[in-house]
Amino acid sequence: MIAADRRPPYIAQKLRSEVCRAVTGRVVCHPFLVEGRSIFFMKGLREMKRTLRVLVVHASLVMGLALVASFARAQEATVTEEGAITGTMDIDFKTRTDLDTAGTYVEGSPALGAKDTYTFKMVVGKTTEYSGKITRQGDLFTKVIKSQKQKAALGFDVNLAVYNPRNLDEKKNVGKWVGTLPIATATGVYDIAGGAKGESPLRIAIDAAGSQQAFVDKFGGKLVGKSKKDDGLASYTYKRLIGNKTVEIKVEKVDPMRFEDVELAKGPSPNYPHTTVSGRLDYDYETGNWLADGVKFKYNLNGKDVEDVMSGSVKWVEDENRKSNGKGQYEFNLRFNEGKNKPATTETAVFDKLSAEEAFFAVDDSIPCLTGKITYVDQFISGTDSPAKSKIVYSLNANKLTKTQMVNFFKLWLLGTGPINDE
């Protein structure tokens, strides 16, 4: 039996409005509230409000989880591990040892067809392998009329493979990194896209496998490397912020290796995107150090535009017996997005007793960085300090880096094979 609502009409009407608002958000006449009578009273009203609160909370959780999932897809996991980039490289500098003996070319020139060969096998991020060789030949001009018989260029012939992340014993060859990179020796310009003029563009070509579609993506832009002339080189001051402390060093003879709209081809896996690079990696002639001055990597990952800024240093350290044993090493301290990952002010205490130069090169693992060493054992040409051959071992470590950051760095480093390994 439906109980009569004993409240005055205006109160019953107000109740009807509250119930209707609770259900629909609007004031309407509910079919069960007619002529002052209702099957819902205080108990019914409480039940309805409780149900609505549950529904609202549930909807909020669903929307929140969807947003978290979307955010997670847009973000890439960071990795902290030793041996993030490992492997070996052997260099044979034939352009220094296989010289023209017939007097055909300008004095001191290599023989026609002589090339430096960089043979390597590297693994990046534990799951991507690069193996093969890069060759480099120089310009050749005849002795008498200075006619050019050979143009300077790098040649890439690199096999690409991926490892199964769930079982690193499983490896599959997926494609190649191949092509020609012309060099203007006089200016130090590496025309990365220039190989296309000779129908040999520098590119990554991936084969179809399973659900993976085949693709080809090209490199591009210009890399302005070390020039042959060291006159007119400017000095430059480099700064680094450690907490609230700014340290700086001044380099007197800087030769910048500039990246002018350099394009890194995507791959080997399609989740490593096409990337544009700008900025400078400067060479200090007096110390052999490399100093990164705001090298920017721009790419799109899962629909989101990303910019990574690389700063820091690669310090050259020679063994005290280098003249006899040929040993030396690059010590890495490259930081990623340092401005966005400033260390806490209290962490500056560890650097307080260091000189400005020591603090500048000190490793701070509170921020994303690439550390570790690349070691060299050089075999010198008799009577000189110029290497005829080099044996190189890579042992670089990642601290809070993504695999995309590692792969992008490695591609850029290989593009600079010539300038980086010269002496």
Fold and architecture overview:
By secondary structure, the protein is α+β, with helices and mostly antiparallel strands. It folds into two domains: 9-71; 79-421. Helix content is 19%, strand content 45%. Strands 3-4-5-8-9-10-13-15-16-17-18-19-20-21 form a 14-stranded antiparallel barrel. Strand 20 (369-380) and strand 21 form a beta hairpin.
List keywords for this structure.
2 domains, disordered N terminus, 423 residues, globular, 14-stranded antiparallel barrel, two-stranded antiparallel sheet, alpha+beta, 7 helices, 21 strands, 19% helix, single chain
Task: Summarize the topology.
Layout lengths: L8 H16 L8 E2 L2 E2 L3 H33 L4 E15 H4 L18 E9 L3 E10 L2 E2 L6 E3 L2 E12 L2 E18 L4 E3 L11 E4 L8 E4 L1 E5 L9 E9 L2 E20 L10 E10 L5 E12 L2 E15 L3 H4 L1 E10 L19 H6 L7 E12 L6 E15 L1 H13 L1 H5 L2
Antiparallel strand pairs: 1-2, 3-4, 3-21, 4-5, 5-8, 6-7, 8-9, 9-10, 9-11, 10-13, 11-12, 13-15, 14-15, 15-16, 16-17, 17-18, 18-19, 19-20, 20-21
Q: Give the overall pLDDT as a whole number.
A: 80
Domains, number: 2
What is the SS-derived class?
alpha+beta
Order of strands across the main sheet: 3-4-5-8-9-10-13-15-16-17-18-19-20-21
In short:
The protein is an alpha+beta fold and 423 residues long. The protein has helices at residues 9-24, 42-74, 94-97, 322-325, 356-361, 403-415, 417-421; strands at 33-34, 37-38, 79-93, 116-124, 128-137, 140-141, 148-150, 153-164, 167-184, 189-191, 203-206, 215-218, 220-224, 234-242, 245-264, 275-284, 290-301, 304-318, 327-336, 369-380, 387-401.
